[in-house]
Write a structure and sequence with these properties.
Elements: H1 3-53, H2 59-111, H3 119-153
Helix pairs in contact: 1-2, 2-3
Length: 154
């Protein structure tokens, strides 16, 4: 078993573990966002009730409640933006994993000597290459989408 094959296998395992850790971190953050959404929703409901029920309260009190409500809406919008970014990152991780698997399959076909390849092997190699190009194009679209979002936010 040549050294370069062991190195490739080790690097593939390392990158798979990195993707797994990133996926776990994203999942945790998505769960945190969900909990925060619920908390913000409850706070918003309370503030809305206060604003509706307390028509006799001083104007500065109502202005304070309105400002708090607007702050909650802004916070919720920021969380929604973050959630959207995380969902794009999840898609990117899936495509990255798919690309690694296709790379590995393609490498196994390409390492085979041309004289030993059957027509089925060559057809499978071409199909894998086609799938790999599709995955790379999808990843490129996601990256462009993220860049457009970033530029729009600026």
């Amino acid at each position: 078993y040549p050294t370069w094959k062991r190195t490739l296998a080790r690097r593939a395992r390392e990158s798979q573990m990195k993707r797994f850790c990133r996926a776990q971190a994203i999942q945790r953050r998505l769960e945190e966002i969900e909990v925060t959404f619920r908390e913000l929703e409850q706070q918003g409901i309370k503030l809305e009730k206060l604003l509706r029920d307390e028509n006799e309260s001083p104007g500065d009190q109502q202005a304070q409640w309105t400002n708090q409500l607007l702050y909650l809406v802004q916070k919720k919008n920021n969380l929604m933006t973050e959630e959207s970014d995380l969902m794009i990152a999840v898609q990117e991780l899936k495509l990255e994993e798919q690309q690694c698997q296709l790379d590995e399959k393609l490498r196994s076909y390409m390492n085979k000597e041309d004289t030993l390849k059957t027509p089925e092997d060559e057809k499978a190699e071409q199909e894998i290459l086609k799938q790999l190009v599709e995955v790379v194009n999808k990843r490129n679209i996601l990256i462009q989408l993220q860049e457009e979002k970033r530029l729009n936010e600026l």
